[in-house]
């Protein structure tokens, strides 16, 4: 009986991770170099915040490689369920890097705000921010596709970080324009908005990855979907116990299902297999399904 979902072969997963790493490290190195030069020339708090954000992206890119390499190791005596829980740990490292960037952005912006801000002339700074938004948009789409293929929380966190950068670059762009045409204070205010957006993304990603690491259960809608699928299998009378648990980013399902007590063994086995196959093929997060069939009069 098949109880485990088929994922793309390990070699394809490894290639996806390598591709994601090169996209991330090359894109971020390019952006941090350009932003650092322009920020030092213009003194823009918003652009400095963007530089700190890109610098943190370079750091987590290196951490991502090590963590994903460990997560792909096969099960052994010390980790009989595999090493997939290292993946959300990498996701947490990504969020900590994002949080540091948010702190750097906020502290710099507050100092600039207290000093009265400066008017940043549009031109090179705004051009850099437009380039950043476009580059990060492309990176977001590419990493998102790879995260969906591998179902990797680390790559999902990386994709969300790229999307956050698109938004923060747009806020910094508006801040620079506002500092020149409206008020110098709008540049550090934009820097604060950048940091706030970063912290918002950080909180969501931390909660998501902690659930994976600590063996949290599936969301209510996923549980309801599993129950609906199981109860729709011919021969199932009811599900009287259902437990879901994340082992890393993969969901393990264990259920006790009542059937007629006088069923032939072959029919009970068919019901068991059909439950497993339907859940595996219709619920995306599920990796393994264990079904315990019990006679209705003994539950």
TrEMBL record:
The gene is cef. It is found in: Membrane. This is Cation efflux system protein (Zinc/cadmium). Belongs to the cation diffusion facilitator (CDF) transporter (TC 2.A.4) family. It is a multi-pass membrane protein. One of its GO terms (molecular function) is monoatomic cation transmembrane transporter activity. NCBIfam families: CDF. Keywords: Membrane, Transmembrane, Transmembrane helix, Transport. The chain crosses the membrane at residues 21-48, 90-111, 123-143, 189-207. Residues 23-213 form the Cation efflux protein transmembrane domain. Residues 219-296 form the Cation efflux protein cytoplasmic domain. One of its GO terms (cellular component) is membrane. It comes from the Bacteria.
